[in-house]
Amino acid sequence: MHISEGILSAPVLTAGYVGAGLLAAATMRGMDMEEVPKLSVITSVFFVTSLIKFPIGPSSVHLILNGLAGVVLGWRAFPAILLGVILQAIIFGHGGVTVIGVNSVMLGGGALVAYGVWQLRHYFSFARKEFAFGALAGGIATISSGLVLSAALLTTGEAFFAVAGAVLAAHIPIMIVEGFVVGACAEFLNRVKPDILAGQKRAKPQVTAT
Amino acid sequence: MALDIDRYASVASPIQRWDPRVKTAALGVLIVTIALLKTIPMAAAALVIGAAIVLISALPLHFVSHGLSFILVFLVPFFLILPFSYPGQAAFHVLGLPFAWEGLRLAALIFMKALAIVLITFSAFGSSRFDVSMLALQRLKCPKVIVQMLLFTYRYTFVFLDEMRRMYTAMRARGFIERTDRRTLRVLGHFVGTLLVHSFERTERVYKAMLSKGYQGELHSMVEFQSNGVDFIKAAVVLALVVALLIGDVGGRFAPAAQAWY
Amino acid sequence: MVLNVMPHSAMGRRVIIDVDNVYFTYPDGHEVLKGLSFHLHAGEKVALIGPNGAGKSTLMSHLNGVQLPISGRVVIEDLEVKKENLKQIRRKVGIVFQDPDDQLFCPTVFDDVAFGPLNLGLPREEIESRVKEALAVVGLEGFEQRSSFHLSFGERKRLALATVLSYQPEILVFDEPSTNMDPMNRRNLINWLKAADRTILLCTHDLDIALEVCDRCLLLVDGRILADGPAAEILYDRKLLEDNKLELPLAVMTHEMLHGILAEQEMDEADRVVIGRFLHAHRHVHGPDSHRHVHVHAHDHDHAHLHEEVDETHFHESEPHDQGSDLTPGGAAGPSRDKLKVEGGK
Predict the structure, then answer these.
(1) N or C terminus: fewer CB in 10 A for chain A?
(2) What CATH number is attached to the domain comprising A15?
(3) Domain extents for chain B?
(4) Domain of C195?
C-alpha cells in the first residue's frame, strides 16, 4: 500500500525525503561496481512480482514482498525498494513522485525490520525454521509499513484518524498473505539455493575476477 | 500492463521538444507546489493546468486514460470515508453517521491535486525516452548510481515480465487455479522463489557479459543535451503559473471563514 | 586416449591462444578444469564440443580473464591473462554468449553496440561508424534507435553478435550460437562464420554446425581435452562421441543410415539410384561453389564430382588409408561399406 499525492503536508514530505536519503546512504555503503548491475537486476524481479495478485473473495490484493526483499537482500533491500518506488511513480501513472521519500521509508523500513527478524533465526534450531522466520519477517514488514503509513496520515490532522485506522485494519489480511508467501518462498530458497538468502553462515563465494 | 511509459516519446509537441533537463526541473517545481495547495479554487486551477499540459503534449488519450484508471480507483475511498470522519460539527446525518461538508471538501481537494500531479507526471515522462529522462535527472544532480541502477532495473523488468508470464501460463496449463487458500499462497511463494533463483543466475551472466565487453565500473552514455531560449521561456511560463498558484493559495487561506468552500 | 593430429591448416600459423595445463576449482570446492591444454592458431575455426558439465563455460571464462586459473596459464597473443592485462585481453577476445538477454542491457540498440567501444574510450565519430558497420554486418541497419527488448529473438541474437563485433576483437568465441534459431537465421550464421576472417572458437552441441564451419575440433570431457583433431575425423568417430554422451552429427548419421539401407536392403535399381543420388546430393547441399566433400574417408578423388548425375563408382569399398592420417574413423563405415557393391557408372 502506498500513499498518494496531495495528502501529506510539506514537513512530512520533507522528512520522508531526508529519511530516505539517510537510509539510502547508510545501506548503500561499500557498493562496488559488481553490485550495481547485480542489485538492479534483482530489483527488477521484485518490481515485477508486485504485479502478482492474490484473490481475496471478489477482489484481489497485489503482493508487496518488501519482507522478502529484506530476507534476500539484507541491507541492500532498502536501495532496491527505493528504486522500485521511484519506478512505480514514474511508469505506472499512479502518481507518487512527491511521496517517493515517504513511501521508500515506509516500505524500505519495513524491509529492514524484516531483515532483522530474519536474522534472529540463528538463535534457534527447529524444523521449518526458515518458513517460520520468513513468515514472521513478511508479516512484520507489512505491519511496520502499515504503522508508518498510518502515522503519516495522522500527522495530517484529525480528519484522517478514521482513514488511518481503516488503513491499519486493511493491513491485517495483507499481513497474513505476505507472511505465508514470504515464508513459503524462504523455505523454497533454503532448499533450492540457500546462498540467495541473506545472512547465511557460509560466506558468499567471490566467483568473478574483476 | 503498460510498462513502457515512453512508448509515445516520439510524438512531436512543445513538451516533447522541451529540453528534458529544463522540463523536468520546471514541471518538478510545479508538481511540488500543487502537492502543497490547500484551497479548492487553486486545486481546481492546478487540475486545469495539468489537463492543459497533457493536451499540449499530444499524447494519445487512450494511453493517458489507461494510466489514470488506477489513481481514480485509489482515490474513491477518500470520498467515502472523509466526509464521515471529519471532526467537529456535522451538517447532517446519513444512516446514523455524521456527514461534514468539510470532509467532502478535503476529499475533493486531494482528488484534484492528485489527478493534476498524475497528469503532469505522465506528460513529463511520456514525452521523452526513459533513459533520456533518467539522464536528465542525473544532470540535475540526482545521484549517478541511482540513475544507473534505474536504467538497468527498467531494462530487465521486461525480461522478467516475460518470464513470469511464461511460467504462469505453464502453471495454468497444469491445472492450477488461484484461490483464496493456503495452497495458492505456497505456490505463489515457490513461483516467486523460482523467479528469484533465475534472476540471481542471470545477474551473474549479465555481469560476465559486461566484463567481457570491457566494463570497468563506469556506464557511459552518448546522449547530449542542448537547450535554447525557447526551453527557458517554457520554464518561465511554468514558473509564472507556480507563483500564481502560490499567491492564490496563500491569499485564499486568509479569506473570510464565512465562505464555506474556501 | 588422446588423439592429437595437427591439422595441416594450422601449420605455419602463429599460436594465438595458448592454454597451458590449466586447473580451476570453484570456491565451493568443485574442480572443473583439470589440466587443460590446447592451442589455437590465428585464423583457425575450431569447435569445442563436450557433454554438459565438462567445463566449456568455465573454459570460456578463462579466455577473457573473467576467471583466472588456479594453476597453469592462458596466453592470448603472447599476453598472459592476468589481472594487470585484463583490459587488453578483453579487447582481443570477444565472447558471444548463449542468451541474448544477458548481453543486451542498454536502453537502445545503438547504446548496446556502442557499449564496447565506449569502454575503450574511442572518439564519438569512430563509435558511430563502428556501430553502423556492426549493425550492417548482422543485417540490422537502421535499428539504432529501437529498444533491444522489443526485438524478436532472432534479431536479439544477431544484435548480441553486433555488440561484440563493434569493438573488433581478433578472436571470437561463441557459446551455443545456433540454439533456438530458426533455420534461415541459422543458415545465415553458418555462412557468416564460414566467410569470417577471424579466429573462431565455437562451443556447441550443434555438431552439424561444427562440421560445416570448423576445420578442427576439440573434445572437452571432465575438465580435460580428450581429443584434438580435424573436425572431419572427430565428428565421424561414433565410438568416441557416444562414449562421451554425444552423438554423430545429423548429417553423418543420415549418411550412415542411407549407406546401411543401400548395403543391407533388397530394393529396385531405381530406388538405389534415388538413394545414391540423395547421398551424393547430400554432400553438396550447400551450393555448388562453396561446399566441402565430407567423406567418410577423408581423401582426394582423382575424378570430378558431377552434381547432376550419380556416379556410383564414387562409393568406394573401404581401403587402407595413405593420406597421412593413420586413423580409420571407428565404426562409421566399416562393416556396411564392405557390403556395398561397386557397380559400373550409369
Answers:
(1) C
(2) 1.10.1760.20
(3) 14-138+228-253, 143-212
(4) 3-243
Residues of chain C in contact with residue A33, where contact means CB-CB under 8 angstroms, are none
User: If you count DSSP H runs as helices and E runs as strands, how many of each does chain B have, helices first?
Assistant: 9, 2
pLDDT at C156: 94
> Is the model's pLDDT at A166 over the cut of 60?
yes
C250 touches chain B (CB under 8 A): no
Distance from CA of B92 to the nearest CA of A (A): 17
- If one counts the domains in chain A, the total is 1
How far apart, in whole angstroms, are the C-alpha atoms of residue B207 and residue B253?
Answer: 56
pLDDT single digits (tens) C316-336: 333 333 333 323 333 333 333
SS3 C258: helix
> Which residue carries 557479459 as its cell?
B209
pLDDT at residue A207 is higher than 70: no
Total domains in chain C come to 2
Q: What is the pLDDT of residue C274?
A: 78
3-state SS of A51-107 is CCEEEECCEEEECCCHHHHHHHHHHHHHHHHHHHHHHHHHHCCCCCCCCHHHHHHHH
Section B105-109 average pLDDT: 89
Are C34 and C164 part of one and the same domain? yes
CATH for C235: 3.40.50.300
How distant is the Cα of A91 from the closest Cα of chain B, in angstroms?
Answer: 5
The three cell numbers of residue B195 are: 523467479
Cα B56–B59–B61 angle (5° rounding)?
A: 105
Could you tell me if residue A136 is inside a domain? yes
Least CB–CB distance from B203: residue in A38, A166, A185:
A38
Instruction: Suggest the residue from C25, C62, C64, C66 to mutate for an interface test with chain A (most A CBs closer than 10 A).
Output: C66
Instruction: List chains adjacent to chain C, taking adjacency as at least 3 C-beta pairs closer than 8 Å.
Output: A, B
Residues within 8 A of C (CB atoms), A 29-58 only: 37
CA distances for C6 relative to C18, C56, C321, angstroms: 15, 22, 17
What grid cell was written down for B124? 513529463
Distance of CA A97 to the CA centre of its chain: 18
Determine the residue type at B168: Y
B180 DSSP assignment = S
- In whole numbers, what is the pLDDT of chain B averaged over residues? 87
CB contact under 8 A, A209 and C105: no
Q: Does C223 touch chain B (CB under 8 A)?
A: no
The separation between CA C213 and the C-alpha centre of its own chain, rounded to angstroms, equals 5
A138–chain C nearest CA distance, Å: 30
- Burial code (b: 16+ CB inside 10 Å, e: under 16) for A55-73 equals eeeeeebebbbbbbbbbbb
Distance from CA of C68 to the nearest CA of A (A): 7
Domain assignment of residue C344, yes or no: no
**Rounded to an integer, what distance in angstroms lies between the CA atom of residue C296 and that of residue C266?**
23
Same domain assignment for residues C45 and C175: yes
In a domain? residue C345: no
User: Residue C310's pLDDT is what?
Assistant: 38
Dihedral pair phi/psi, residue A175, rounded to 5°: -60, -40
The reply to whether A3 falls in a domain is no
Q: Tell me, yes or no, whether C222 and C281 share the same domain.
A: no
Tell me how far apart the alpha carbons of residues B134 and B127 are, in angstroms, rounded to a whole number: 13
Q: Do the Cβ atoms of B214 and C116 come within 8 Å? A: yes
Judgement on whether residues C36 and C160 belong to the same structural domain of the protein: yes
The pLDDT-based confidence of B256 (bands split at 50, 70, 90) is low
Whether residue C29 is contained in a domain is answered as yes
Q: Provide ipTM, 2 decimals.
A: 0.90
